[in-house]
Amino acid sequence: MNKKLILVRHGQSEWNKLNLFTGWKDVDLSEQGKQEAFEAGKAMIQYGVKPQICFTSYLKRAIKTLNIALDAMDLDYLPVYKSWRLNEKHYGQLQGLNKKETAEKYGEEQVLKWRRVFDCQPPALEENDERSPLVDERYKDVDKKDLPLTESLKDCIARCMPYFNQTVLPAFKNHDTVLIAAHGNSLRGIVMNLKKMSEEEIIKFNIPTGIPYVFTFDENMNLIKDEFLADEQTVKKLMDAVANQGKK
Active-site residue 183, yes or no? Predict the structure, then answer.
């Protein structure tokens, strides 16, 4: 029997709406984001994709997206596991800055590097900065050496993939369909590994908010196909919108 992995990037957040770098800042969903999460649940029903176990990050925009989508499917009872390792890429000192204004100040090319070059880190936070995970209650049980003050995509993948390989993949032993509700960059790390994409390919690949992205595997976990649960025109439009966020 085939296995399915569903990836859902959280719906639009209040800071997405304002085009701000968000990272590990715990920002809530906008009204549009809540609707996107609901539509994600409805899309899974429409396409006959029914998760049995769920994983998400420590950030409320992903947690609430998952909760709303499950509610839309009447699957509120499903087991949900949370891990900080599924958090968004940490944007360091850029967190809270407007992407367009940052592009005007530093240039589109530099902002694109910070956002998308595989091993390029934004400027790091100080340890005692109020935005630092070292002073955030929810990470008090995490080894301090593991908590980032900035991250490149490479760093994000390095902390996300061990969790995916050691915790998420084993869930397929007892379940046929697994759902992860997380973030653009943590999910891109998973996609990069599943599709064996190059650094150049993943830089250009964008995941739209609120559109379930389904990977189908055979019983030996060999990838058969991957598809977004939406029409191609809608997916392209939303991908382009993500790509244009860091432009003047």
Answer: no
- Annotated catalytic residue, options 39, 88, 151, 183: 88
Q: Measured on CA atoms in the order 88, 248, 107, 200, is the torsion positive or negative? A: positive
Distance CA 233, CA 238 (A): 9
Q: Supply angle C-alpha 53, 54, 57, rounded to 5.
A: 160
Q: How far apart, in whole angstroms, are the C-alpha atoms of residue 85 and residue 94?
A: 20
Read off the pTM: 0.92
Kindly tell me if the per-residue pLDDT of 167 is higher than 60: yes
Which position among 10, 36, 39, 183 bears the catalytic label?
10
Per-residue model confidence (pLDDT) at position 241: 67
Alpha helix positions (H), the chain:
14-17, 31-46, 60-72, 99-106, 108-116, 153-163, 184-194, 199-204, 232-243
88 is catalytic: yes
Cβ distance 87 to 230 under 8 Å? no
Predicted confidence (pLDDT) per residue in 117-162, tens digit = 889 999 999 999 999 999 999 999 999 999 999 999 999 999 999 9
Give the residue-averaged pLDDT of 88-92: 95
Task: Decide if pLDDT at 248 tops 60.
Answer: no
d(CA 213, CA 126): 36
- Residues 186 and 158: beta-carbon distance below 8 Å: no
What is the spatial distance between Cα 78 and Cα 81, in angstroms, rounded to a whole number? 10
